[in-house]
Amino acid sequence: MEDWAEIRRLRRAEGVPIKEIARRLGVARNTVRAASASDRPPSYERVSRGSIVDAFEPQIRALLVEWPRMPGPVIAERIGWAHSMAPLRKRLAVIRPEYAGVDPVDRTVYEPGQIAQCDLWFPQPQIPVGSGQQRVLPVLVMTLGFSRFMTAVMIPSRQGGDILSGMWELICRLGRVPKTLVWDRESAIGGTGRVTAPAAAFAGTLATQIKLAPPRDPEHKGMVERANGYLETSFLPGRTFYSPQDFNTQLAGWLERANTRTVRSIQGRPADLVETDYAAMLALPPVDPPIGLNHRVRLGRDYYVRVDAVDYSVDPRMIGRFVDVIASPHEVTVFGDTLIVARHARSWARHGVITDPAHKAVAASMRQAFTEDRRRREAALRHHSDGHAVALRSLPDYDALFGVDFANPNPDTEASNE
């Protein structure tokens, strides 16, 4: 390249003869002539010697015509490929789009307050949850489209009620409601391709909408996917967690610093741009949306209700009646006839039994009263010599049976008897 530039300068600018240029630079005169005549810089192009795949390409194309998505190892087996997979993969990357097509991805511009992407992230460390148990728990992550502001919270399960509780907590932290919440096909939100009834009720109360991403299209919510990766590589390393509450405390502190970083794609800091997002969002609703785990059950003799594989005691006086169970990530409340008949802190452990001592005392007193009543009933029975029970009847019962009234005797009856 340097010789080409120098030859052109000497020949065109200074008019040096070809023979002198060849002598000065130590090149052939034909090289000087070619460089002077060329208007473009020289480039080296290696002559292709072909590839070992060339002989198999017709067979490959015949397979791709019928099965455009056929995996590379299957193609190798069908064509009798006995070499390294590297050259075959390179050729498939070139010719497969001719048959399978290409799905381009557009760049999206997000308006302030318009969208927030949501996803569940499952950090690998197991979190102590009590009762000697450790669990891998989901973390609900939400990223605002315009400002890239991140919020996240660990929740006890991926059930719909717990996810909605986590979304409401994050929205309350923001203080406003994004106009659209983007989700993938999470089973509790829209696993069938349609938004579930609890999720629709949640969105309706907030006057927002839940938009489901197309199946197998992670780029549709790439912002929150990148946020998950950022959490994985920048938040987790070097940390130890002693409880879900400890995890959320450390996460909240880290997010305050993470939102002050400069994001290259928006050339700004999320903490500075979130105010613009906030101004364009919707106001919080006047009432809380329906969240948490909810179900109705008739209370059995053991006076316990089950929430997420954990049993919680209820006032035994509600046995045989319907009770409504409402569980948030932090508390389990049971209502009977609009009255609170049980309230417990929610356990994130599995297969536990949570008992209120007051409920146990009431159950003991009811059991004692039942035993005494049964003894009283048994004492009111007499037995024949063969052992079967006979009820004891009062004497007035026999008077009534024979029509005798000793309190008000009938004179006509006494005269006839005489």
Structural features, described:
The protein has 418 residues and is of the alpha+beta class. It folds into four domains: 2-37; 54-100; 116-280, Nucleotidyltransferase, domain 5, CATH 3.30.420; 293-360, no CATH class. Helix content is 40%, strand content 17%. The chain has 16 helices and 16 strands. It has helices at residues 2-13, 18-25, 29-37, 57-66, 72-79, 85-95, 97-100, 160-174, 187-190, 197-206, 222-235, 244-258, 270-280, 357-379, 395-402, 411-417; strands at residues 116-121, 127-130, 133-135, 139-144, 150-154, 180-183, 209-212, 293-298, 304-307, 310-313, 322-327, 331-336, 339-345, 353-354, 381-383, 389-391. The strands form five sheets. Strands 5-4-1-6-7 form a five-stranded mixed beta sheet, with helices on both faces. A four-stranded antiparallel beta sheet has the order 8-11-12-13. A three-stranded mixed beta sheet has the order 9-10-14, with no helix packed on it. Helix 2 crosses helix 3 (29-37). The mean pLDDT is 88.
Please give a quick description of this structure.
The protein is of the alpha+beta class and 418 residues long.
- What are the low-pLDDT stretches, counting only 5+ consecutive residues below 50? none
Count the strands? Answer: 16
From the 3D structure, determine the CATH topology of the largest domain: Nucleotidyltransferase, domain 5
% residues in beta strands: 15-25%
Helices and strands: which structural class? alpha+beta
Mind telling me the CATH superfamily name of the largest domain?
Answer: Ribonuclease H-like superfamily/Ribonuclease H
Distance between the termini: 154 Å
General form: elongated
Main sheet: strands, sense, barrel: 5 strands, mixed
| Computed CA radius of gyration, to the nearest angstrom | 41 Å
Strand order of the largest sheet: 5-4-1-6-7
Please give the CATH class of the largest domain.
Alpha Beta
Number of helical segments with 4 or more residues: 16
